[in-house]
């Protein structure tokens, strides 16, 4: 699972002790993030265009647990 935190916490994450890093690992606000399925084209580094992260036209089964909607 990736760690997502505000940009202003970046220097704290990189330059602090393990306990402070643990404190930064808080659930990200649901209303500030969206999750959606994208094309498997993203798996090929040769596909370097904005379309690789465009949402697909259908809903992915099981993605609801990660969605803010």
Automatic annotation (TrEMBL):
Pfam families per the UniProt record, alphabetical: SRAP
GO molecular function: single-stranded DNA binding
Region: Disordered, residue numbers: 1-20, 40-69
Highest taxon listed in the record's lineage: Archaea
GO biological process: protein-DNA covalent cross-linking repair
Name of the protein in question: SOS response-associated peptidase
